[in-house]
Amino acid sequence: MSTPRFFSQPLKYLHWASIEKPAIFFSIVVGCIGPVMIVTVPPLRHRFGDPNRPEIPLTYPIPSGPRKRLDGYDD
User: Fold this and answer.
1) Cα 57 from Cα 8, distance rounded (Å)
2) What is the pLDDT of residues 10-56, one digit of tens each?
3) Alpha-carbon gap, residue 16 to 12, rounded angstroms
């Protein structure tokens, strides 16, 4: 029996790979789960009560008003 090709018989190939080459099989499974998780995980997080994180500031906040002169730290 020849090995099935992925694009001509994908289910038969996955069955063969799960028995003969489990590393290839699980890499295909994990690779297919990634895009599915992009769609399913955010709604599940909100349903379980995990709020969105605050955004990380990209700049340092600039104080309003003049700077205070420091005393006592002269060299």
Assistant:
1) 50
2) 888 888 888 999 998 899 889 999 999 999 999 999 999 998 889 99
3) 6
Q: What's at 70, amino acid-wise?
A: L
C-beta of residue 13 within 8 angstroms of C-beta of residue 4: yes
Positive or negative CA dihedral for 32, 35, 38, 43? Answer: negative
Token reading at 56 = 């990380």
The structure's pTM equals 0.50
Radius of gyration of the chain (CA): 28
* Helix ranges, 1-75 (H): 10-20, 22-47
* Vertex 51 angle, CA 50 and 56, to 5°: 125
Assigned token pair, 18: 């799960």
